[in-house]
C-alpha cells in the first residue's frame, strides 16, 4: 500500500511574495495605461497602482487636474488639483503637507501626498499622486519609480498611436496612387456596354461600386486574404471588360489560407503592376495576349502568395529603388506594400521580386498565418 504525502507549495519568503504581488499589480495596470492617459484608463489602472504602492490612496491626473482617485481621502481631490499644475510647470516631484491638505476629519489617513510627474518623450503629461499618513524617503522613491514606469507605459501607448497613424497615412497614400486612369477607363468600358449589353453594364457597374467601396472606405490595418482577393477579382473583371481576350488571368487559391489576416490593400497594387507590365508586352507577342497568374498556397505556418506576369520584366536595380520607396519609379505602391509587410511581420517578410528584362516578373508575398498583434 503506497502512501503519498502532500506538501503545500510556496512562493518562497516574504520578499518573493512581495515581488510577485508587485509584478501582478503592474501587469493588471498595464493594459489600461497602454491606451493612453484618459479618464477611463486612469480609473481602471489607479487601484492597481495603489495596491502596487501599498498606500491608503492614489490618483492619476493630466496637466488640467485629477482624472481618477482610489482609496481614502477623496475629499482632498480639489486641494491637489493646483499642485498637479505646479508639478506640470516645474517637472519636479512635490510633497504636499497639512498646510495644503486641510482636513477636519481626525481619522483621515491622508495627511500628506507625493505628486510625481509623468513624462512622455520629454513632455510632462500628468502626475501620479500618492496619499499617505506621512511621507518617507522610501515612499518618495517608490512613488517616483512607479511614476517612471507609468510614463513608460504611456510612451508605449503613444508609440502604438503613432504607428497606427503611420499605417493609416500609408494606406491613404496608397489609395492616392490607385491609377485615376483605371477609374476613368473602367467607367468608359461600362458605358460602352450600356446600349449593346445593358445587363453586363449593370453587373460591371456594381463590381466597380464594390471595388471603390472596399478601396476607399475607412478600414482597419488588416483584412482577410479572402476580402483582399475578392477586391482583386473585381479589379480584374473591370480590366477584362476593357481588354477582352488580350488579358488572360489564372487564379489558384488554397481554401486553407482564405482566413489569413493580411495588411489592407497589400495585393491589389501588385496585381495592378502585373496587369500594366503584362499588357505592355502583349503587342509584341504573336497572339497579342498578356498573361497574369495569382497563386495562394498553404505552406506550413505561412501563406505564400505569388503574382506573376509574362510582361517586359524590369531591371533589378530599378526594382530595388522602387522597394526603397523611390516615387519616381513606375510602380504602384511597391515600396509602400513592402514597408507595411515588414512593419507587420518583421524584415523576413518583405516582398521578394524575381525579374529581369524580357523575362516577366514574379512578386512573392509571405505572411505568417498567426502573428502577435495582427488580427482583423
UniProtKB/TrEMBL annotation:
One Pfam family recorded for the sequence: His_kinase
InterPro entries the record matches: Bact_2-comp_sensor_kinase, GAF, HATPase_C_sf, HATPase_dom, Sig_transdc_His_kin_internal
Sequence ranges assigned to domain Histidine kinase/HSP90-like ATPase in this UniProt record: 266-369
SUPFAM superfamilies: ATPase domain of HSP90 chaperone/DNA topoisomerase II/histidine kinase, GAF domain-like
GAF domain ranges (all copies): 44-141
The entry's keywords: Kinase, Transferase
Domain Signal transduction histidine kinase internal region, first and last residues per copy: 169-247
Domain of life where this protein originates: Bacteria
Molecular function in Gene Ontology: kinase activity
Protein name per the record: Histidine kinase
Origin organism lineage: Bacteria, Bacillati, Actinomycetota, Actinomycetes, Propionibacteriales
Amino acid at each position: 500500500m503506497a502512501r503519498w504525502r502532500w506538501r503545500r507549495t510556496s512562493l518562497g519568503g516574504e520578499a518573493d511574495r512581495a515581488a510577485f504581488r508587485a509584478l501582478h499589480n503592474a501587469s493588471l495596470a498595464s493594459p489600461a495605461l497602454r491606451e493612453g492617459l484618459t479618464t477611463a484608463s486612469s480609473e481602471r489602472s489607479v487601484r492597481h497602482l495603489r495596491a502596487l504602492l501599498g498606500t491608503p490612496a492614489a490618483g492619476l491626473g493630466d496637466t488640467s487636474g485629477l482624472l481618477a482617485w482610489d482609496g481614502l481621502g477623496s475629499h482632498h481631490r480639489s486641494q491637489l488639483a493646483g499642485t498637479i499644475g505646479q508639478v506640470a510647470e516645474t517637472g519636479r516631484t512635490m510633497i504636499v503637507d497639512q498646510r495644503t491638505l486641510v482636513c477636519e476629519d481626525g481619522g483621515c489617513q491622508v495627511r500628506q501626498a507625493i505628486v510625481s510627474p509623468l513624462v512622455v518623450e520629454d513632455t510632462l503629461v500628468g502626475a501620479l499622486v500618492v496619499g499617505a499618513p506621512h511621507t518617507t524617503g522610501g515612499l518618495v522613491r517608490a512613488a517616483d519609480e512607479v511614476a517612471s514606469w507609468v510614463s513608460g507605459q504611456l510612451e508605449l501607448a503613444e508609440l502604438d498611436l503613432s504607428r497606427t497613424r503611420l499605417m493609416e497615412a500609408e494606406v491613404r497614400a496608397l489609395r492616392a496612387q490607385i491609377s485615376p486612369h483605371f477609374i476613368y477607363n473602367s467607367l468608359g468600358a461600362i458605358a460602352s456596354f450600356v446600349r449593346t449589353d445593358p445587363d453586363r453594364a449593370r453587373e460591371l457597374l456594381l463590381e466597380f461600386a464594390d471595388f471603390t467601396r472596399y478601396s476607399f472606405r475607412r478600414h482597419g490595418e488588416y483584412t482577410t486574404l479572402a476580402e483582399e482577393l475578392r477586391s482583386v477579382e473585381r479589379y480584374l473583371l473591370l480590366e477584362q471588360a476593357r481588354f477582352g481576350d488580350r488579358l488572360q488571368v489564372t487564379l489558384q487559391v488554397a481554401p486553407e489560407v482564405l482566413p489569413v489576416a493580411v495588411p489592407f490593400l497589400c495585393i491589389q497594387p501588385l496585381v495592378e503592376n502585373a496587369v500594366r507590365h503584362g499588357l505592355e508586352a502583349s503587342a509584341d507577342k504573336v497572339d497579342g495576349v498578356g498573361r497574369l497568374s495569382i497563386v495562394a498556397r498553404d505552406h506550413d505556418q505561412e501563406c505564400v502568395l505569388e503574382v506573376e506576369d509574362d510582361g517586359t520584366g524590369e531591371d533589378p536595380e530599378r526594382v530595388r529603388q522602387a522597394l526603397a520607396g523611390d516615387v519616381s519609379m513606375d510602380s504602384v505602391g511597391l515600396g509602400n506594400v513592402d514597408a507595411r509587410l515588414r512593419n507587420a511581420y518583421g524584415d523576413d517578410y518583405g516582398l521578394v521580386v524575381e525579374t529581369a528584362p524580357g523575362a516577366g516578373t514574379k512578386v512573392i508575398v509571405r505572411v505568417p498565418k498567426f502573428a502577435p498583434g495582427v488580427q482583423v
